[in-house]
């Protein structure tokens, strides 16, 4: 069998209109006019390439049966969802089955095929595929209970920022407290903000992110706050706490050399931010009270460029206001710390055929979302809160975020 990767197509399966095929994914920037796949770990474009076999649909059938690609069409086109499902399978073999030599790069060669054939012979189905929010883990239930408590608490006792949000008319993709949604049929990403009030010019990746998906919990780390060293300007933007609706999309959409998969505000107007109006390199109540030279309150406004994206291996905070995820490590649904440092790239430099590195843990986050979103659903709910909010439930406590971060770092 020939090596299969992004863009491979079975004989007779190349779409008659590549642009239409890609349109559900290519909604942003330069991608709107591109008719090739973006292989962002290799920093290159992959055209639709017809083979003389039906190997792609055989692969897709396996991935669906094994629980990694439940919603994708068996169309014989190795597209974004197929690539994500292959990487999840490889990561599952590497971490759950303990095959340390497996690398989740989304390329199906002889090594990956040996494990596919092994699974086929045994009729194995992954626990990720069998997971369901109706039979959720106890940790998943704890997080949903905490989020529901947070909604009740902040509906009755909104802080200064949430009061402003409740009275704001142009919300973009941000959501008022009364409308926060924690339906377990949806995918939820939770950001826990730490040390935001401390003055820091070079802010580190010191926050955590919790993905709630199919009754499972995966944890990541990075930063919810901008680093002035990255923003390189005054009045850096802090995403406001609360809930926001995000969708599948791309980051760096104006730079063809760097464009890669990310999450973007579901509304093109963006999400609500509060800027560091007093330029103390921190988020404080003073920023909410700041006025311009005419005495007008500066306050909140919507910003279209607050994405959820990659932050290298985590040694540098690459946020100028976005929510950023480190690639070095994550915690899986068994509460085990998973090290990705052997293949996780520090920056764009090693994302090439020569470098052969990937975005590590960040890919696991985006692949889980892409593969396990329900048919026709291209969004998730992102809820950002402060670590003090963890005190609302005795199962957590404000120290939980720091302890979780330390485990991954």
Automatic annotation (TrEMBL):
Domain Peptidoglycan binding-like, chain residue ranges per copy: 54-115
* InterPro entries given in the database record: Peptidoglycan-bd-like (IPR002477), PGBD-like_sf (IPR036365), PGBDSf (IPR036366)
> Where in the sequence is the signal peptide annotated?
none
Alphabetized Pfam families for the sequence: PG_binding_1 (PF01471)
User: Which SUPFAM superfamilies does the annotation name?
Assistant: PGBD-like
Q: What is this protein called?
A: Peptidoglycan-binding protein
**Species per Swiss-Prot/TrEMBL record:** Sungkyunkwania multivorans
């Amino acid at each position: 069998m020939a090596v299969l990767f992004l863009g491979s197509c079975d004989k007779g399966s190349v779409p008659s209109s590549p642009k239409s095929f890609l349109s559900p994914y290519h909604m942003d920037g330069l991608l709107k006019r591109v008719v090739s796949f973006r292989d962002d770990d290799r920093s290159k474009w992959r055209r639709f390439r017809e083979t003389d076999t039906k190997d792609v649909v055989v692969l897709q059938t396996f991935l669906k049966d094994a629980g990694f690609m439940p919603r994708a069409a068996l169309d014989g086109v190795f597209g974004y969802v197929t690539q994500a499902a292959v990487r999840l399978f490889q990561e599952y073999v590497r971490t759950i089955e303990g095959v340390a030599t497996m690398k989740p790069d989304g390329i199906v060669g002889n090594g990956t095929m040996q494990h596919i054939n092994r699974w086929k012979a045994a009729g194995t189905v992954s626990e990720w595929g069998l997971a369901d929010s109706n039979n959720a883990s106890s940790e998943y239930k704890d997080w949903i209970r905490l989020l529901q408590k947070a909604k009740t608490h902040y509906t009755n006792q909104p802080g200064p920022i949430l009061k402003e949000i409740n009275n704001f008319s142009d919300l973009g993709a941000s959501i008022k407290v009364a409308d926060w949604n924690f339906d377990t049929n949806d995918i939820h990403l939770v950001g826990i903000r730490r040390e935001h009030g401390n003055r820091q010019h070079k802010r580190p990746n010191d926050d955590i992110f919790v993905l709630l998906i199919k009754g499972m919990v995966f944890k990541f780390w990075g930063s919810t706050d901008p680093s002035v060293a990255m923003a390189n300007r005054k009045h850096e933007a802090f995403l406001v706490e609360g809930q926001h609706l995000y969708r599948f999309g791309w980051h760096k959409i104006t730079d063809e050399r760097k464009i890669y998969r990310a999450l973007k505000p579901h509304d093109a107007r963006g999400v609500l931010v509060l800027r560091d109006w007093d330029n103390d390199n921190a988020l404080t109540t003073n920023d909410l009270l700041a006025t311009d030279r005419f005495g007008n309150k500066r306050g909140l406004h919507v910003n279209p460029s607050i994405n959820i994206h990659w932050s290298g291996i985590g040694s540098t905070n690459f946020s100028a206001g976005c929510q950023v995820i480190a690639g070095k490590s994550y915690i899986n649904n068994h509460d085990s710390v998973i090290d990705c440092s052997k293949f996780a790239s520090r920056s764009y430099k090693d994302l090439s055929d020569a470098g052969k590195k990937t975005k590590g843990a960040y890919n696991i986050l985006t692949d889980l979302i892409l593969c396990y979103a329900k048919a026709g659903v291209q969004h998730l709910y992102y809820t950002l809160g402060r670590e003090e909010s963890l005190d609302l439930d005795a199962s957590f406590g404000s120290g939980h975020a720091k302890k979780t971060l330390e485990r991954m770092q």
